[in-house]
Structure formats: C-alpha cells, structure tokens
Queue: 4 jobs
Job 1
Amino acid sequence: MPTDATERADLGFALWERRHWINASAVEAYLDDLSMRHGRRNPRLLRLRQLWMEDNRARNYRADRLRQQMVKRLWTGCIEYNREPRQFYPETLLKPSFLQYSFEVLEWSLRTADWISEVTELNAL
C-alpha cells in the first residue's frame, strides 16, 4: 500500500502499468489451463495463483489511487489552493465532454453548444 513518501513513485508506476495492462481474465485463463495440465493441487501452481492474486490486488489499489489522484489534482487546480492561483476555471468540471479519468468511456456527447439544455432533456427521459 502506498504511503505519502512513495506517492509519486506509486503514481508513476500506476500510469506506466495502465499502458501495459494485461487483462486479469487472460491470466486467469492461463492459470486454469495450467491447472488442467498439471492438476489443481500442484504446489507450484498454487503458489503462482497466490502470487497472481496478490499482484492483481496491488495493481487494483494502484489504479484506484491513480483515479483518485487525477480527480484531486484537477479539483485543486480549479480553486486557489496552498496560496497557489487556480490553473483552470471551475466550470471545466461541469462540462459533460470532460472525462474525469483518461480511461473513462464517454457515454454521451454534445450535439450543440447548449449542453445544459441537453442534460435537462436527458434527465427528463
């Protein structure tokens, strides 16, 4: 688990890891294939599965922390924080086209410049 002292390194690793992510389902399928060939109780396979579970849990923690840090940095950039002037306008956070995370799926996009009316229209559905 990251600490304040290791936060920058942990976030840097999380960013790198997101670009080189191996799907958990692919690893699980590989481990299932190994268990069919070598038996479910094979000591090496059990150890490998245990290591995978620990690594997967740790990378999920890093990904969660990365998502939280991205939003925190954006929010603190929209207000005066630690006597630093704001870097963006707070309205940036309210734009529906603004992705909160770099890997978020945009479920709706603007048709016009009047996005407030479009949101009101969507909420009425």
Note: The radius of gyration is 21 Å.
Job 2
Amino acid sequence: MAETTYCHMCKFARPMDRRGVPQIFSGYNIHFNGIIPRTIMHPSHSVEWRMAERHGATCCTSFDPAVVSILVYRPGYERSEKCRTCLEHHPNIPCVPIAWLLDSLLQSRQIHPSLYRLTRLLPVANPTVGGTDLPHHQHPFYQINKSEYSIPTSFPPSKNKGPKKSAAAEGANNQNEVPGEMEAAIPPFFDIEPFRCTAMSVFDAAVACATGVKTEAVDDDNDKIEARKTKPGIELIAAQQPSNKVDRALFSGMNVVLTPSLQGQTAVVMTIQRCGGKIAEKRESLEATLRNNVTHVIYSHEDKKDDVMIQAAHLISTNLPGLQLAQSNWLEDCLILGELLPLRGMYTPTAKLLETLNKKYTKARS
C-alpha cells in the first residue's frame, strides 16, 4: 500500500506546510470524482488534492463509503456510479461540485456543503468538457494559486511538448521568450518590478508607532480630520499605519527570555521593551537565567527544540510550574488586537512537544 500511496515525488513535495493556513476542511475525508486526470502519475500530485490537504482534509485514492465523508465531483458527473451510490445507498455522504471546494478556499472558510449538495439523481447530467482543461481551472482561486500548489508532475504529460505547454506545467512565465525572427518586429520589454503586497511586519509597525515614526496620510482631497483611534491595535497594511496605536503597558510585568532566532531580531526586542516588558539579563548558566524571576519564554517555530526550550520544559515539570512558554505569534496577535490573549491552544507547545523536550533533557544528563 505504501508503494501505491507514496512515490519519490510525493516524498519530495508532500506534505505541504500547514502552519498559518486555515484548516477549513479539517475532519473531512474527500474523494474526487472525475477531477484528477488518470494520466497523472499519482492523484496526490494534482493541484486540487494538494489544495484540499493543505487546508486540513484527508484525500482518499479509492472510493470507500466507510471512509469517505464527502464526494467532490466534476460537473457532468452527476449521474456517475459514485454519485448514484451516495444518493441511493449512502445519504450521509454529500455529493458536492468542485466549485464548493474552490469557493470555500477563496473565502478562507468552509461554506456549508448543503448549499451545493446534489439532492437527487438528475435525469440528464450537466454538460462537461472533454480532455484535461476543465472549467474549474478558470476559478479565481485556482488561477491565483496554481503555481504555488503545483509540482512538475501536477499536470498530465502533453503529446505535443511545445514550450507553451511545458512552461504551463512547470509554472514558468514565458512572456520574455520571443522567436528569433520576431525580435525586430516588437518593442523591447521593460523590467517592471512584480506587484508586491504592501504588508508590514507587526513588530516593525509596533516599533514605528511606539517611537512616534508614523507616515502621514496621503489623502489631500479629504479635509475631514479623522477621529483619533482610541482602542490600541496594529494595522498590517502600510497605508493604514497612521491609525496604529500601541498600549505602552501591554507587556508590563513580563520578564522575557527569547530563543536565539528571536534575539537577533531587533524589532522583537524593542517591541517588548517599548510595551512595558523586560528582557531577562543573562546569568552564568541558562538555568540561573530562567530562575531569575523570568515569567515568559518566547520561542519561534524553528527554535521549538532549542536548549532554552529543553531547560524551560524541565523547570516547568519540576519546580517552576508558573513559567510560561509562548510562541512568537502570540506577541503578534496581542499587538494586533491590543490586549493580552489567553496563553493556550496554538500559542503554547503541545503536550507531546513538552514530553519530547523532557526526554531530551534526561538524555543529555545521563
């Protein structure tokens, strides 16, 4: 079974990183009916499969009614054997078109399947398209994100392997490739910078706001003076920086130890200090530093198994149960919302991680 499920390309490309991606399909076992071309090396290489899995779904290669919890079909397959089986014998398995999946992804929330569900066996199926260029490939979410989710084997091999086809399969951009005989007939290309979203780092925005470095509003035509923002919070778009407001006492009472990757980020250190927190002084040993009235250890995802975390997990399980471990995104969300959020759930290390850290401490001491 392992050979049929994982090939070398699967091991190279899967699973995609789910961190920071809304798990809107969590708990669903999805089977695709007519969506994935049979000529693809393995169904898990397809863009649709990778989109669903990254957002929390478990995709099934074979249709087993005991396992599958939702059937996603291609328009035109309403009278297929699988849809018929679900409608007649397994009403607990909703049949929804691929538009449900893509619309949910576009809105970053799960639209209730009942709004799209196939409720009866149609006397005549909807028109479908032959070949591999399907209508849902024109969906905005698919068009915007297909290059991010595709791998070289995500598309079926083409019989005429022209440059246009192969480049589309590899997500390349062929706009600058011009046939030799046409070079004199067309004007030169300009090196235009690609569009970049003007998003700000939370910590950079907080430091700029706390130090009073704010950009002026550029709307000269609007003479109305906007009301000053009363509730603290951080906006992430560069154009909205004048409306930022930071609570200078947000982190007051916190004595913080940062993991190595965060120590090198000046904006993180300055944000904690400008908002009332303190960075703990280094002592002769790591244990002595953590015992010196430290209240929080802030760690980044890549530092979750660092020496600081190993020592902190040991102290928490022995004689410092009040020491708090928090991921750096907790600081970001606190700044964005302008209030201290409860330290639980995704902001804290899992029980399994704490157990692993304690094992590492025991192994290092033995």
Note: The two ends are 40 Å apart (CA to CA).
Job 3
Amino acid sequence: MGFYDWLRNHQGEVIGVQQWVDETSTFPFSTRFGGVEANVKHGVLRIFFGQSREVDEENSCDQDFGSNRLLVTGESVALTFHAPHLIAER
C-alpha cells in the first residue's frame, strides 16, 4: 500500500495520518467522509482526527511501513494503522 506519515501540528500533537498509495488504480479513494482529503493524482490520502488542518509538514514525515490494512466490503472502507511507538512529539 505504501508508507504513511503521522500528521502533526506545530505543538507536536498528532492530528491525522497521511497514506501514500503505491497502486492508485485499485485504491478506493473517497472524500465522502468527513475529515478525509484525497489527491488521486499524487496517490495521497489524508485523514484528520478532528477539525484542525494546520499541519507542520517538517515534523510529519515518519514514513512508517507495514501493519496497516485496507479493508473493503461493498461500499464500506476501513484503513487501519499500527502505532505502538507513536508519541505526540518527535
């Protein structure tokens, strides 16, 4: 699926996750869910956990791999992440 970055604000708080998609032709991009931004051209899906969209790009570059899953059934989609090491500030 590609790697993912934890999106942080300027205070170091995690406000979302950004999934970089390797194979965009088979990934079910959707923006019909609140808090989701999709850029199909660049293969990027951003999922925000709240209202804040002020991302500190410099501190949002974890490039984590693995243990995330894409689950699709009918019109339902779930994207999971495994982050036992995740802390608010890097």
Note: The radius of gyration is 13 Å.
Job 4
Amino acid sequence: VSLGFVEGLNNKIRVIQRRADGLRDEEYLRLKILTCMLKEI
C-alpha cells in the first residue's frame, strides 16, 4: 500500500469527522468511514 493511498484515506476520515461534528451516534460515523473506504478499494 502506497503512502499516498493511506494519506488519502486519512484525509477522508478527517473530513467525515469534521462534517459529523455534533452528531452523537458513533456507530453512524463508523459506518460512514467504512463506506468511504469501500468505495476506494
């Protein structure tokens, strides 16, 4: 796995976390992150 791919995933996770600020449902956030990763793979 190249570092560029990993950095891209980390960036997407940070963006999702920023957009989810204020949401209390951690399971929903986890599912959003997993969905984002599945699209890349």
Note: Residues 3-40 form one domain.
